UniProtKB/TrEMBL annotation:
Record-level GO BP terms: meristem maintenance
A matching Pfam family: PMD
Organism: Rhododendron griersonianum
Domain Aminotransferase-like plant mobile: start-end pairs: 1-141
PANTHER family: PROTEIN MAIN-LIKE 2 (PTHR46033), PROTEIN MAINTENANCE OF MERISTEMS-LIKE (PTHR46033:SF8)
Name of the molecule in the record: Aminotransferase-like plant mobile domain-containing protein
InterPro entries: AminoTfrase-like_pln_mobile (IPR019557), MAIN-like (IPR044824)
Amino acid sequence: MGLTLDDVEHILGIPVRGLAVYTEDERTPKRLLMDFLGLSEEVAENAIASNAFKGYAVKLSWLEMNFKEVSETDTDERVVCCARAYLLYVIGCTLFCDKSGGFVQLDLLLLLEDLDKVRTYGWGSSCLAFLYRHLGYASVDKRALPNASSCSRPRVHVIFDPYKNRRQNVSDIAFYTGPIRAMSYVEPYLPDRVLRQFGLLQQIPADPIAPQRASRGQHTYHVVYEWTEGFWSSPDYHLVPEDKRERTPPGIPWACTDDYIPWLSVFSHQRVGCGLPPVGGRVQQGREEQVRVVLNVVQRALGDTGLGAVELRQALQDVHAILLPTFDTKRGGVLGGEVRCWVYDKLVDVSPCSCMRLTCL
């Protein structure tokens, strides 16, 4: 399950269709302040030199302090500048908020130059692209993740389609397939991976959009997807095909095609469970599971007589990936509180991530 354009439409109530939210204009922060907020060159330079600015990012509190009021005597230009500052403030507080400590990107002013044109942008799709990217950033920040010791396996009731009583049909834009964009962030949107959220029968999805470049380390996350203007400018030509929009049988919202589960068992993870608890908890059970998984990897490698050097190296890397996260090389013991999970015979990070890069369960 994951966030879709259907969610954005119902939760935020803002336009999803429209022009892509980005610009290729590369004006400097000083130039942006002068051209769109009406500051003099000296005032703009002093503002940028203060701690209210970090590169192209400006503090929301600075916008509020300097543009929160207009008076009867203000010129039309001043009123328009305050309107731009207010819209930038709202965007930074709602659509493009992150953990930066109350900053918003100043280059968004380029999209606010013509106030009559603001409504023509697809702010909903850009909000979703922004969220996808920052979920990716959060996936490498262990501080943003829960402690494994607090993991539990409660029985839950999954509501696949929470809006079915609020709409007759899902809007076509929710089935758009392709890249979405928020300024420099380009993210893939693949709704055929979560068809059950639209009340549809889950089928094997199409191949995902591959990034041009990608790297993810312990503390780094960098991914670049190609932006194809023709996709978003003509979304009706890039929808999930009609033959894949089969309604689920009444009373069976989790239904899927017969070939979906076998496909899922090969390409994704069906089960996610808690990782090793801290020392003093159910460590013995975790160790037994760890040994079982390692033996499975080794048996698969030994049973395939046609393995070459590359395959053997991959098998060793799998064993290494399973063992290393649970062993403290500095203290010589099992780690407690690591955010790890047993998933289909592998120990992996539990990372909040865009559902569009994953496959729905």
